[in-house]
Design brief:
The complex is a heterotrimer of chains A (263), B (659) and C (294).
Chain A: E1 11-22, E2 25-36, E3 40-44, H1 51-59, E4 66-71, E5 74-76, H2 81-86, E6 89-92, H3 104-111, H4 120-125, H5 129-147, H6 163-176, E7 181-185, H7 193-210, E8 213-217, H8 221-227, E9 230-235, E10 238-243, H9 245-250, H10 252-259
Parallel strand pairs in A: 3-8, 3-9, 6-7, 7-8
Antiparallel strand pairs in A: 1-2, 1-4, 4-5, 9-10
Helix pairs in contact in A: 3-6
Chain B: E1 2-4, H1 19-29, E2 34-40, E3 43-48, H2 49-66, E4 73-77, H3 82-93, E5 97-101, H4 107-116, E6 121-124, H5 127-137, E7 145-148, E8 162-164, H6 165-178, H7 182-189, E9 195-201, E10 209-214, H8 215-229, E11 236-238, H9 246-260, E12 262-265, H10 272-279, E13 283-285, H11 288-304, H12 307-328, H13 335-356, E14 363-366, H14 373-381, E15 386-390, E16 400-401, E17 420-423, E18 429-433, E19 440-441, H15 445-451, E20 458-466, E21 472-477, E22 482-483, E23 489-490, H16 492-500, E24 505-511, E25 518-524, H17 526-535, H18 543-547, H19 550-568, E26 578-583, H20 603-609, H21 611-617, E27 623-631, E28 637-648
Parallel strand pairs in B: 2-12, 4-5, 4-6, 6-7, 7-8, 11-12, 13-14, 14-15, 25-26
Antiparallel strand pairs in B: 1-17, 2-3, 9-10, 10-19, 15-16, 17-18, 18-20, 20-21, 22-23, 24-25, 26-28, 27-28
Helix pairs in contact in B: 1-2, 1-3, 1-9, 2-3, 2-6, 4-5, 8-9, 11-14, 12-13, 12-14
Chain C: H1 2-32, H2 39-55, H3 60-81, H4 91-113, E1 128-131, E2 136-139, H5 140-161, H6 163-173, H7 175-180, H8 185-211, H9 216-221, H10 224-231, H11 236-256, H12 266-280
Antiparallel strand pairs in C: 1-2
The chains are: A alpha/beta (263), B alpha/beta (659), C mainly alpha (294).
Chain lengths: 263, 659, 294
Amino acid sequence: MSVADKKIGDVLLKVENISLSFGGVKALSDISFEIREHEVLAIIGPNGAGKSSMLNCINGFYHPQQGTITYRGEKRKQMKPHEAASHGIARTFQNIALFKGMSTLDNIMTGRLLKMKAGLIASAFYKGPAEREQIVHREFCERIIDFLEIQAIRKVPVGRLPYGLQKRVELARALAAEPTLLLLDEPMAGMNLEEKQDMCRFILDVNDEFGTTICLIEHDMGVVMDISDRVVVLDYGRKIGDGVPAEVKNNQAVIDAYLGVQH
Amino acid sequence: MSETSGKPDGRDPLGRDTIPKFFAYNARHRRDRPSIREKDLGIWQTWTWGEAAGKVRHLACGLAVLGFRRDDKLAIVGDNRPELYWSVAAAQALGGVPVPIYQDSVADEIQYVIDHAEVRFAIAENQEQVDKLISIKDRLPKLETIIFSDPRGMRHYDHAFLHDLEAVMAKGEAHDRAHPGFYDEEMAKGKGSDISLICYTSGTTGRPKGVMLSHDNVVRSATLAINFDKISETDEILAYLPIAWVGDNFISYAEAAIAGFCVNCPESADTVLQDLREVGPTYFFAPPRIFENLLTTVMIRMEDASAIKRRMFHYFIGVAKRAGCAILERKPVSLTDRLLYALGDLLVYGPLKNVLGMSRLRLAYTAGEAIGPDIFDFFRALGINLKQLYGQTECTVYLCMHTDTDVNPDTVGPPAPGVELKIDEATGEVLYRSPGVFVGYYKNDAATAETKTADGWVHTGDAGVFTDAGHLRIIDRAKDVGRLNDGSLFAPKYIENKLKFFSHIKEAVAFGHGRDYAAVFINIDLAAVGSWAERNGIAYTSYADLAGRPEVYDLIKGCIEQVNRDLSSDSSMTASQIRRFLILHKELDADDGELTRTRKVRRSTIAERYGTLIEALYSGQPSVAVESRITFEDGRTGSFKANLPIAEAASYSTMRKAG
Amino acid sequence: MAFFLEVLIGGLMAGVMYSLVALGFVLIFKASGVFNFAQGAMVLFAGLFFVGFTELGVPMWLALLLTVGVMVLLAGVIERLVLRHLVNQEGIILFMATIGVSFFLDGFGQLIWGSNVRQLDIGIPTDPIFLMDGEILIQSFDLWAALVAGTLLAALVVFQKTRTGRALRAVADDHQAAQSVGIPLNVIWIIVWAIAGLVALVAGVMWGSKLGVQPAIVSLALKALPVLILGGFTSIPGAILGGLIIGAGEKLAEVYIGPLFGGGIENWFAYVLALGFLLIRPQGLFGEKLIERV
């Protein structure tokens, strides 16, 4: 029911004619699509279709040779990942990139780094405003911990956590930055059914509670159809479908791609 | 045979006959003492008795505004949360009846209870529970109002019947201001003979039954128990057992209000052990399974510890096993042992108890199932006053309790104050009379009449015997006690429990009634047997594979023969030594209906489902073919075919016990 | 006994100097996974600039400030010209690059300031101090060195708690994740190399006032290697403790075992000690145990 009365807003991010190649190998060719405010957009496609590359372009890890990305009405060509982060784009990774030596809480606190104001000298002495600021950030992180139901692992070094929980901590860290646009690279890969259901619930709740725009890559078609408002389908670096889940499901090109019809 | 203790009646000298009246009393006399705590956003939040009583008042008034009337039922479903305990009090204050429901029940189970209890109002902890209620609401015409406590994820729910608890309380506060006398008048109307609670019992067979307990039942039983163990307002507990279980209502709600102690609600179900450490309760109740898990955790930690630590641990645990229980029961102990024990307390027991959150523990109970004597004695040896308790919902929690100075792991203690017990000569069943005897099963007079005799005795359904020391020993469910073909006694649960005390055996199901000899199904414990296999270089691919290994059969055979030796020492049990057994290829599972939610074996289901296996145990054949459907975690199903071997175990001739 | 203590204390003080150099290695290795072979050359480079400025008649405090500026600038240049182009390359390639940087610094410093030994006197008293009724003699210079090292360490510990310190730890742990939470990798690298430069400056000034500023400092700085093996490449306390052990160990060995070999074992004993240690605990005293999870 939450999906039905949700207000999907204007275009938040517009990808136009993006092409990316690595030493002559084309990863993406001429991709264009839009991500609208408050929507959950899924990018799907067979292995090697260029989904992660697409995310890496949006997030600034890769710089496409051609095309533009317009974010909040501003055209940008080259942007570094940390600049993307400071513009409100947070993400998780397919292969989990956590600070393995830190506890869950410290990981999430690190996610708030951009929000921390206290200067070097002030925070070095850890008093007054700096301390108050710490408390505010800690409280925010505790809300996320509560939200994602990871209270029990608050103090556990993340390297010791099972895979499913690491994925959840990674999501928590991304949320700590209060992102406008959240990129999730296969948030449910390698999870069992129950963990997947939990993760779906969290993604929808995030979208619902905070109004966060979410762009995710996912293999599990059932999941994609359930939680996304719109689906973009890539195959061999080209876009072959774009629309609401029901449309995409009946799109012949998509069916062919998934059934492995020769090109 | 009949054992009686004195007859204190547990009535309150101040005439407080309902729990809301105790809340009101505490609000005046313990206004600033802590009443309940909850860990929220990583910080413990405390409500004093004054604040808690205020919440109850506003909640009650809010319920009244929504139309909750005397004798209405209030279904309560969720984890241990302050708001849910307050809603119990609020319903009772208005003369209504709280009906707590297990939070992990599936929608169908909830539907049955709400329908049967004719519930009009329900309070749900969070979205998950609300979703379950909404999914069955169409089939529950009487259910009018659902109140939720945690607003997370509820923003887009716009059903008219849904209310936010905060908003209900705000309405109540306004109502209270407009009608200041309303709450107190309503509360004063309540009397001891009113129904205070309906607890639906899970039951090993059939539909759950709603046990009606009066305020008198609860107040008097709780008062007697408080006096028995000298519980006071300075005690602290951790409320982590399901609120739908009568014991939690009794301890975390009734005893807490009467004695005025503080209840701590864990942050979440996963954090209970950490919260236990942080709270350090003085009074603790846990089923045997929890003590088992704690012991296992300790042992695993010690395996990983340095050699010096491990040596020290084992040495001092040895000392504790020798002298600890005696010291705890204030019995004579040699000076050397006393000194060594003191040193051990400094080096091992103290730190260990601290890690377990048991440093301040002065009273601990276990009940529900038989506890392994080793586990029981381990905790007592550390200086923890762990005792057994026996009872059921129908008697308001307890019938027998160990006294502090006379504890025996094989018994459940003597009859508690105010309780009369007798054992039916013919069936061996335990019967009782006590202030806690329930009013009846809700809308089930037939079942009530079956359980309560005309002269006030109540059938427990359990078979037991009295020891020479006057303690009760429970051997089995009365209906499960059977006879072998030669006429000798066969108590399956007694045998199963003995088997389950081995760490390698997770579940056992014994057969023998109407047969020539006893035989069992075994469920191995994957963790324990798995690590045993690893240590012994036995490779396996799956549970079923491991279970079928000849080495594992030998391992289990050893356990069974140990039990046989034990049984052979008791003349009434020697005939039920186990001759043949097989190890099941799958774990018995509550989801498949083979166990109850409280992990008790459902014999009828098992007899039905595994009929061919049972026949094979008595046919003399060396193995039996099975085929079963398996549902994988991702929802796919597959089928499983295998040959389960059947093994024989040696039996022993009757021996006299030494000494 | 008194003699033993004197040797021990003398050794520990010498160890402090090793620790200072090792600290520079650890900081860079932790943050970027680069084994900075140029750390020794940076010590000389900083020392040369400092002594050079003072010889030009610049007041001591200004010379210090100017040298700090030079080291920060150097960090920026190294990042811009070397590191930026080698992102995501193998560790060995970065290591080779730092060897290049090392030779460049060595040569460039001497090109500007010449290669003769320069005396450096920054006014640290050098009178001996007697303890236990005059039975033990310590150099007050050594005490000063320990004090300076202690202050530096305290400053680093405090720094770790700051926002930048948190960012540094994040970068040390996972580059990709650090970038995704908005930490600019390049800036962090400049900061790290600048801090390592400052540590090198402190070491250079201390070594310089003790032995004179001379190219031999570079090879002396390589004593930090056994220190790192002992303490672990990623541990700051390890660098300190490792330095102390090596310092004390080689002095004691020189005095007590040395005569058996006819003396002169001080120069190689540290390496033998480290080698022996490597066999027992390859991750170092405080190093992280490498657990590969399947």
